[in-house]
Specification:
The structure is a single chain. Strand 3, helix 5 and strand 4 form a beta-alpha-beta unit. The longest helix has about 60 residues. Helix 4 crosses helix 7 and helix 5 runs parallel beside helix 7. The strands form 2 sheets. The protein has a 5-stranded parallel β-sheet, with helices on both faces. Strands 1-2 form a two-stranded antiparallel sheet. It has a domain of about 200 residues: Glucose-6-phosphate isomerase like protein, domain 1 (Rossmann fold), CATH 3.40.50.10490. The chain is α/β, with parallel strands linked by helices. The N and C termini lie far apart (about 125 Å). It contains 8 helices and 7 strands, in the order H-H-H-E-E-H-E-H-E-E-H-E-E-H-H.
């Protein structure tokens, strides 16, 4: 054909497309920002820092969790020991009041061993059969004591139970009553998760007009406006800090003033005012709340209407506590029977 003589054959035709594609790929790779060795090193160092910070945070959280678990275990162990000790004290008080231990000192103590006190200065006599501080074991603490509570401890008995100074218990009850009377009763909340404290706080509320939570304290009662139990008191009275810990935490978060009845094992964290005394015995709790109610009524110019006997809880020890006590007694017998090494 004319005009085709000088054209090269098909196989001899060369194209530059593959070379162009390779160049484009190389250029694209460079444009995408391939990292230089310095940039890679910087990124690795940043990742190492992030990992180190994360490890530190995890270690801190683990430490906090471990501390919380240890505190909970100690509290639970302490509560079991306290219940057993309290039942023992209750039995001693009962035996003393019924005259079964004639010729013995009340709760293993003579009045002179407590303090030299003018009974006329006290709200009730020391050894009064009906209202006495000694009669109802208000002055009996636990074997375990904290440094916070040491100023209120008069002595330690041979059986290692701590003994409170009765004059300090009495003075603190008077001071607490004066402080509570300054508030509108509806702004005062009384709490007790202890079974033996639920009835006394109910009677205290009836006598003074304060508000009492006699059932379980629901989490968020002082902090969550969206729940039915929400309330906004200006003062809260705690029966036992170890049992009412949630109420104390929420009161601290919301800035509510806190008064607490404290045994020898109490720490003062988040407590504004403490009343030292036996906060686990039903007779002791009844006497403390009855005295506070009586003093508040007098300050407000009213005659106290509810007798002490009405403040005493009729609740019986929980079955698990009785079982725990049996196991503890069995364990002690076994330990006594073992030969000493």
């Amino acid at each position: 054909m004319e005009g085709t003589e000088n054209l090269p054959e098909t196989g001899d035709i060369k194209t530059n497309e593959p070379e162009d594609a390779e160049l484009k790929v190389e250029e694209t790779g460079k444009e995408a920002g391939e990292e230089t060795p310095d940039e890679v090193k910087v990124e690795e160092e940043a990742e190492e820092e992030i990992e180190e910070e994360a490890e530190e945070e995890i270690e801190e959280e683990a430490g906090e969790i471990e501390e919380e678990v240890e505190e909970e275990v100690k509290d639970e162990a302490g509560e079991i020991e306290e219940e057993a000790e309290e039942e023992k004290v209750e039995e001693e008080v009962k035996d003393e009041s019924s005259g079964e231990k004639t010729g013995t000192k009340p709760l293993g103590l003579d009045i002179e061993e407590i303090e030299v006190i003018d009974s006329g200065d006290l709200l009730v006599p020391l050894d009064d059969e009906k209202y006495g501080y000694l009669t109802h074991g208000v002055h009996i603490g636990l074997k375990y004591r904290t440094s916070d509570m040491r100023p209120f401890i008069y002595k330690i008995r041979p059986d290692k139970l701590c003994v409170f100074e009765v004059s300090k218990i009495d003075k603190r009850i008077k001071t607490a009553a004066k402080f509570i009377s300054r508030f509108n009763p509806k702004d005062v909340l009384v709490v007790s998760n202890r079974e033996y404290g639920k009835h006394p706080i109910k009677k205290f509320a009836e006598e003074t007009g304060c508000v009492a939570i006699t059932k379980r304290f629901v989490s968020g009662t002082l902090t969550n406006p969206d729940i039915g139990t929400y309330t906004e008191p200006k003062l809260i009275i705690i029966t036992d800090p170890s049992a009412d810990l949630q109420a104390i935490k929420e009161a601290a978060e919301t800035g509510i003033a806190t008064i607490a009845i404290c045994d020898t094992n109490t720490r003062f964290k988040n407590l504004d005012f403490i009343i030292p005394g036996n906060n686990k015995g039903k007779n002791a709790l009844a006497l403390i709340y009855w005295l506070m109610a009586r003093e508040i009524s007098k300050i407000n110019g009213k005659e106290p209407g509810t007798p002490y006997e009405k403040f005493v809880s009729r609740a019986e020890p929980q079955p698990y506590l009785l079982k725990m006590r049996e196991l503890q007694m069995l364990s002690r017998r076994r330990q006594r029977g073992k030969p000493r090494r």
